[in-house]
């Protein structure tokens, strides 16, 4: 069977903010998707732990007892994360906020959907509004632990704190992938909601075809943007497609690598406009100017940002990011002219 | 009709403006400290809590822009920024004592860190509430232009009295301020009208929480604040219940003679649009 997996973040956020996680393991023939809940803490670690445990341990079934056993592992990972922050002299607020949440016993919540294959037979475990969508005899089945009419902001979830109950009961379901049951989708809630809506309208087939036609990340991003513009809600969005191809062998055609996407985005995205209150560094122009054009311009922009930091609300009043961006470009021109000027001085 | 239902999110961020009275009367004693220290601590705690609620372990999500504006005879921006910027740039951290269960049925006192963005005042001054509301109006107006479909801005005013500026008769100041506040409350975007909530740091009227009737407060200063307060929209009722604020039909978002908990509850309530997204039980 053919496997493809895609993930993206909310509009106006970045991959590093994405709280969905998925995992695929061809050895155990398992796939899982988990959606970390926004108003919880260290939910990315929790979602990752859930999907990796399900996919890497063939006999592991996610129930209240087995999930509780993951609790100390989550806590250990969080404590290590905080220790790493301290060892790397991270920002004070980052350490303060994590330590405060740890001391106050704050935990993570995450929904879960996982499927394991034995040949072409599959068995699915699901909790919350992440769900498995299966095409069975030309009809679409939505497998979720919740009443599908009651998807809201409070889905069923597993809690990373073993003393807390979480919400809802795990649902288990079985099925078969075949020519007449040609694919299953594992999806996080924006897709669940959207596909469900179109199932009710009777035009889901058209949208399922669009999902099956995606072959790479760029196409997935375009589809998500298009679907958001016609009503899919803006949230982290994950899709795993498992499609029947006549073989029981697992063939991963494409899968996004979230770590790489985070890295690529960090390297290519400009730093957001952040009003830093660092003291501006003095820029000294000595007779022996040892500064490249790029360094000089960057320094100039840094100083300008510090100047802007004096009054963020004045910026708000004179416009939003777009206008600030224009101002930044203009400042860059000024910086370049200044550089040329100093160059002339140096030559003279 | 728009109902102020939009949640704060990274794609649809909210604007929270806190107006903080820094006039000379705020140097008076209140709840074991001064009014100014009491109100400043409440504002610092609320900013801290909003950041904490939107913190996922790596950074707070930029789900709102907060601006704190202080007013005496002048109007001054005390701090402003997106949650990430505020988180990264407190003025300082202070250490507070906090009572907490000791795990054996008793209470113990522990030291907790508190970031500080707003400091109490030390000098006397007038009460240019009108100027502060004017700045808030400009901010809200620009915000609405830029975010026609985002959550409507929320303004929370913390004061111990009535406006007094430019040597004018306080009654004239009150009339001018009420008139401006009404203009602001009539501003709207697709989500709803701009909301103004008020907290009075003065116990002369006793403690009155979210009244629906102006006559429930007898003091003229309190009645003035009632007049410049929005009615609580239905969409805020769940948040009111969560913050233990007793409300009924027609209740206004104001508290008179607030204690520390109530003041934080009111501000927390005003920013409750930042707390509705996928919460735990």
Compile the SSE list and pairings.
The complex is a heterodimer of chains A (348) and B (281).
Chain A: E1 2-8, E2 20-25, E3 30-36, H1 43-56, H2 64-68, H3 71-87, H4 92-103, E4 109-118, E5 121-127, E6 131-136, E7 139-143, E8 158-159, E9 171-176, E10 183-187, H5 189-201, H6 204-212, H7 217-229, E11 237-243, E12 251-255, H8 258-268, H9 293-308, H10 312-318, H11 321-347
Parallel strand pairs in A: 1-12
Antiparallel strand pairs in A: 1-11, 2-3, 3-4, 4-5, 4-8, 5-9, 6-7, 6-10, 10-11
Helix pairs in contact in A: 3-4, 5-6, 9-11
Chain B: E1 14-21, E2 29-30, E3 33-34, H1 35-53, E4 64-71, E5 75-82, H2 83-88, E6 92-101, E7 107-116, H3 129-146, E8 154-159, H4 170-186, E9 188-189, E10 192-193, E11 195-200, E12 208-209, H5 220-227, H6 237-242, E13 254-256, H7 260-270
Parallel strand pairs in B: 1-4, 1-8, 8-11, 11-13
Antiparallel strand pairs in B: 2-3, 4-5, 6-7, 9-10, 12-13
Helix pairs in contact in B: 1-7, 3-4
Give descriptors for this structure:
heterodimer; A: 348 residues; alpha+beta; Phosphatase 2c, domain 1; 6-stranded mixed sheet; 6-stranded antiparallel sheet; 11 helices; 21% strand; globular; B: 281 residues; alpha/beta; Rossmann fold; 7-stranded mixed sheet; two-stranded antiparallel sheet; 7 helices; 13 strands; 25% strand; disordered C terminus
Briefly, what is this?
The complex is a heterodimer of chains A (348) and B (281). Chain A is of the alpha+beta class.
């Amino acid at each position: 069977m053919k496997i493809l997996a895609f993930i993206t973040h909310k509009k106006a956020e970045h991959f590093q903010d994405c709280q969905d996680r998925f995992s695929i393991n061809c050895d155990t023939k398992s796939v899982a998707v988990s959606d970390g809940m926004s108003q919880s803490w260290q939910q990315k670690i929790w979602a990752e732990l859930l999907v990796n445990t399900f996919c890497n341990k063939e006999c592991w079934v996610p129930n209240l007892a087995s999930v509780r056993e993951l609790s100390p592992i989550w806590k250990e990972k969080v404590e290590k994360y905080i220790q790493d922050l301290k060892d790397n002299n991270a920002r004070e607020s980052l350490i303060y906020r994590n330590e405060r949440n740890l001391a106050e016993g704050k935990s993570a919540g995450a929904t879960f959907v996982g499927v394991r294959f034995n040949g072409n037979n599959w068995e699915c475990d699901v909790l919350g509004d992440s769900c498995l969508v299966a095409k069975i005899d030309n009809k679409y089945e939505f497998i979720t632990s919740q009443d599908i009419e009651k998807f809201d902001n409070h889905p069923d979830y597993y809690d990373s704190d073993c003393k807390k109950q979480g919400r809802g009961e795990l649902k288990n379901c079985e099925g078969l992938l075949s020519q007449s049951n040609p694919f299953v989708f594992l999806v996080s809630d924006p897709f669940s909601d959207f596909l469900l809506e179109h199932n009710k309208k009777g035009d889901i087939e058209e949208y399922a075809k669009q999902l099956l036609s995606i072959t790479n990340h760029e196409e997935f991003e375009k589809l998500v943007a298009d679907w958001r513009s016609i009503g899919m809600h803006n949230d982290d969005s994950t899709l795993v497609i498992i499609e029947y191809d006549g073989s029981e062998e697992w063939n991963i055609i494409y899968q996004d690598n979230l770590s790489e996407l985070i890295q690529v985005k960090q390297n290519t995205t400009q730093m957001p406009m952040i009003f830093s209150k660092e003291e501006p560094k003095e820029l000294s122009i000595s007779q022996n100017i040892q500064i490249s054009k790029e360094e000089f311009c960057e320094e100039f922009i840094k100083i300008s940002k510090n100047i802007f930091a004096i009054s963020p609300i004045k910026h708000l009043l004179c416009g939003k990011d777009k206008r600030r961006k224009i101002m930044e470009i203009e400042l860059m021109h000024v910086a370049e002219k200044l550089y040329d000027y100093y160059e002339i001085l140096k030559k003279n | 009709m728009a109902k102020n239902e939009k949640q704060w999110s990274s794609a649809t961020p909210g604007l929270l403006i806190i107006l903080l009275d820094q006039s000379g009367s705020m140097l008076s004693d209140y709840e074991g400290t001064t009014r100014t220290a009491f109100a400043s601590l409440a504002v610092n705690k609320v900013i801290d809590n909003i950041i904490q609620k939107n913190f996922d372990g790596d950074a707070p999500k930029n789900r709102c822009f907060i601006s704190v504006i202080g007013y005496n005879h002048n109007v001054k921006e005390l701090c402003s920024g997106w949650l990430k910027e505020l988180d990264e740039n407190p003025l300082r951290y202070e250490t507070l004592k906090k009572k907490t269960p000791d795990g054996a049925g008793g209470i113990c006192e522990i030291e907790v860190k508190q970031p500080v963005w707003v400091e109490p005042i030390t000098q006397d001054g007038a009460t240019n509430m009108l100027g502060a509301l004017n700045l808030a109006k400009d901010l809200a107006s620009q915000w609405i232009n830029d975010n026609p479909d985002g959550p409507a801005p929320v303004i929370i005013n913390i004061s111990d009295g009535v406006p007094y500026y430019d040597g004018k008769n306080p009654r004239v100041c009150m009339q001018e301020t009420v008139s401006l506040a009404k203009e602001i409350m009539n501003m709207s975007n697709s989500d709803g009208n701009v909301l103004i909530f008020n907290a009075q740091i003065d116990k002369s009227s006793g403690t009155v929480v979210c009244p629906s009737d102006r006559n429930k407060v007898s003091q003229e200063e309190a009645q003035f604040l009632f007049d410049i307060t929005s009615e609580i929209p239905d969409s805020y009722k769940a948040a009111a219940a969560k913050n233990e604020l007793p409300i009924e039909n027609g209740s206004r978002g104001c508290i008179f003679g607030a204690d520390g908990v109530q003041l934080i509850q009111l501000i927390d309530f005003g920013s409750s649009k930042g707390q509705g997204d996928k919460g735990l039980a």
